[in-house]
C-alpha cells in the first residue's frame, strides 16, 4: 500500500517504522541534529524500534543528545550507537567528522539531515533526506549574497532561503543519481526549534498558522514524513527522486525559486565554491 493511502498528517513516527520495519532492521542510519526534544531525537527513537544495526548521531553538543543515546539503548541495547561531534557552522569540523564517519563505518544506508548537510558515498538503495520547511516557497532563489554582506540581514529571508536550498540540494543530488527528498515536517509543538525567537514572535507564528487552518503536530508525529521519505520504496518507484514531501506523501513542488530551470545546478556550484571543493558525483 502506498504511503499516500496509508499515512497522513496525524501519522505517528512509530507507525511509519512499524510499516517499514524490514527497511530498518540491520541497516545503518546517520541523523544530524540529534538534540533532545528535537525532530532528530524523535527520528532516532522511532528508528530504534525497527532494530537497525547502527545509529550514527552527528551534533555539536554531546550533552544535548546524551539522553537520546540512553533512550536508544533502552529500546534496543544491541544497536551500535556512535556519536560524532560536528559543528555544522565549520567546514573544517564537517570535513573532519565526515572522514571519521567514513573511516569507522563500511556503509551508510540512509542520511537524514535534520540540522545540516553532509556528503558521503552512497549506493543505489541509499537515500539522503533533507528536512526543509514550507517556508521554502518564499525563498527567492537569489544566492548571490548568501552571507548578507551587501544588504541588511533579515532572519526570515535567510530562513526561507536556507529551506529552499534544502529542496534544490535534493534536486541536484537526484540529477546525480542519488535518491534524495526534501520535506516539510509540519508545524511541530514541543521542539527547541524556536529557542532563538522572542516569545511574541512565536505566539504570532502559531496564531497565524492556526488562522490559516494548518494542522499542528506533536513531536511523536513530527518525524513521520522524514521517515516515509527515508523508508517507503513506493515513493521512488512512483515518482523518482528529488521531490518534496508533506504529510507523508509527495506533493507538487511550489514556488518560483524551486521550479526555476537550472536553479539546483546554480546552487550546487555556489556550494562547491563556498566549501572550496568540487564533488565528482
Automatic annotation (TrEMBL):
The keyword Zinc does not apply. Keywords: Oxidoreductase. GO terms for molecular function: oxidoreductase activity. InterPro entries: NAD(P)-bd_dom_sf, SDR_fam. It comes from the Eukaryota. Belongs to the short-chain dehydrogenases/reductases (SDR) family. PANTHER family: RETINOL DEHYDROGENASE (PTHR24320), RETINOL DEHYDROGENASE 11 (PTHR24320:SF283). This is NAD(P)-binding protein. It comes from Exidia glandulosa HHB12029.
Amino acid at each position: 500500500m502506498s504511503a499516500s493511502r496509508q499515512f497522513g498528517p496525524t501519522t505517528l513516527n512509530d507507525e511509519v517504522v512499524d510499516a517499514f520495519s524490514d527497511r530498518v532492521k540491520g541497516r545503518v542510519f546517520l541523523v544530524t541534529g540529534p538534540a533532545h526534544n528535537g525532530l532528530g531525537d524523535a527520528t532516532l527513537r522511532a528508528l530504534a524500534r525497527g532494530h537497525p544495526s547502527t545509529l550514527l548521531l552527528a551534533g555539536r553538543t554531546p550533552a544535548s543528545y546524551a539522553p537520546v543515546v540512553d533512550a536508544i539503548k533502552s529500546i534496543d541495547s544491541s544497536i551500535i550507537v556512535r556519536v560524532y561531534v560536528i559543528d555544522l557552522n565549520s567546514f573544517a569540523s564537517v570535513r573532519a567528522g565526515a572522514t571519521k564517519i567514513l573511516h569507522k563505518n563500511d556503509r551508510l544506508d540512509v542520511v537524514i539531515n535534520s540540522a545540516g548537510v553532509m556528503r558521503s558515498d552512497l549506493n543505489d538503495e541509499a537515500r539522503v533526506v533533507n528536512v526543509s520547511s514550507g517556508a521554502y516557497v518564499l525563498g527567492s532563489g537569489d544566492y548571490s549574497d548568501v552571507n548578507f554582506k551587501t544588504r541588511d540581514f533579515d532572519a526570515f529571508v535567510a530562513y526561507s532561503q536556507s529551506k529552499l536550498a534544502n529542496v534544490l540540494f535534493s534536486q541536484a543530488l537526484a540529477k546525480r543519481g542519488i535518491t534524495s527528498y526534501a520535506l516539510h515536517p509540519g508545524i511541530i509543538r514541543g521542539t527547541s526549534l524556536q529557542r532563538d525567537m522572542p516569545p511574541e514572535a512565536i505566539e504570532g507564528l502559531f496564531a497565524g498558522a492556526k488562522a490559516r487552518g494548518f494542522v499542528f503536530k506533536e513531536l511523536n508525529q513530527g518525524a513521520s514524513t522524514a521517515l516515509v521519505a527515508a523508508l517507503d520504496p513506493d515513493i521512488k518507484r512512483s515518482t523518482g527522486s528529488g521531490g518534496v514531501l508533506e504529510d507523508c506523501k509527495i506533493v507538487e513542488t511550489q514556488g518560483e525559486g524551486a521550479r526555476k530551470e537550472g536553479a539546483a545546478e546554480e546552487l550546487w556550484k555556489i556550494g562547491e565554491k563556498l566549501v572550496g571543493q568540487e564533488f565528482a558525483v
